[in-house]
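Anyone else keep sequences and structure tokens together like this?

Example one:
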Amino acid sequence: MFPVMAKKHVIACGELSSLCNGPTKNNNTSSGSYYEMLSRILDETKLSESYELIVMPIARAKRGFINRQFACYSPGVETFDNVDIELNNLALLSSQPINQAVVRVISRPSDPLVSNVKGITREGSISIVRGVPVNSTIKSMINRARAVFEVNSELENIKMLMSKRVKWSISFYPDVIDAYKKLGLIAHFPFDSKFSPLIISDNIICHKSHTAAFEKIKVHLMQMKKSGVLKDILKDKYMIAPEL
């Protein structure tokens, strides 16, 4: 009789363009900056012997973490819309920030920049990636638009603007950077750099029952930040100062 292989605990990486990319028809392996970072941590700490990193849609990753199906989840606690409600009954461990996501309201070059909530009017439609964090400011903008289109990726978000199906897109940096690259667009669609309806910190959260693994991840992550390895992995996706 062959021994039964123990099932590994799952660390869920919510799918984000260029950060956590799941397998595609042309590529059977996962990829992305966060995926590379977490994979290296698991390998170098030997946690890969009992934990596996799986990329999945962000809504599914969050839902599975809440239901205790997954040991850990990234991009972390601030990606939940209602933290006090959704995570209230969970004993959580939360790492220091890995990176930041900055929300921008982008528009076509011929249109005025959106500098505040009132810049969104009934004259136009808006698009946003399904499952991303939404705060009260973003909800207000969505409610002011004539129509709202939920898309599956930042790539689709940019395509909505290019095709003039929407007047504005709510986009997350650094996620959207690769969308521009894939489309061969050197210049990004304009936005008001002084206005961001939401800035969130990405990190790693685990259930308290996985404290031993979390401590190894946390220590290794801090070493990667101090040594500059994390910045090297994230490259142009790195959006916070090393001391954070």
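And example two:
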Amino acid sequence: MRKIGGIVIIIISLVLALSSALNFQEDIIFANILLWVISLPLYISGQIMKTSKSEFKHRGKRWIFIYLFFFFILPLLVYLHVSYQDFKESIFVDDQFIIYESASSKLGVISLVGFIILIFLCAGRFLNPGLERKGLLNVIIIGTVIFLIGFNYFMFSDYRGIHKEKGLISSNWKGEKDIVSYEEMEGVFVEPYVHYAYFSRTSSDETRFSWKVTFQLSNNKKEVVYHFPIVTESSLEQMIDIEKIAQENHLPIIVGEMDQETRKWFDFDLELEGLNEARYYQFFQVNNR
């Protein structure tokens, strides 16, 4: 009976901890109170009831470290990453931006890769509290944190986007802006295609309908490309805004034809996401079957 009671308390504590993790972005103070004041004490009490004080002293450290990684460290890292991106966007983006991307070049990938590496390092540290040479791992974690702080500081001004009035805006890490007005464009080309999953990529990668928008510039300037990796309601709204701006500035907008394979994934993803098919059919100029 004591063991069953301990399991019930552990389940309740995990439900509260999950609620805390999900609320990190909305209310970090409430989330931490829920975690540290209510959930964690319940979790420890439940583990003691389920086993014994002596076994908890022997194995409790590992249980608590695992608990803290999933319900505190991981949500905290995600919270910091998202908060940085939100703050950066609030500084540079106004309501006239159709599309905003937090990096103007491939250098922006370094931040995301570093963030993922940090998660794996913390997982190695917290999921294996008895790990040998953990002092070295702690140093590596601290070094990665310092690198990410410094890198994101220097890359704060790096972003790009499509502005309704100004055109294509690109700012490098020095804060130097390059603005291409709509008068400097020759046309817009929309190319639908199928993004195929690869085993060499992350497990989150999957085959899906995607498309890219290419802004063809005059005066032999390099074309500018924006990728749309997944069908969503917001991405359709963005495309409609781009189409409207192209028409207002007398720019031809050409939508490429879909082959049978692309059309198959197009229909499948629309149905899977439960989107307004008619609007997508109209924009991509395909007939409803």
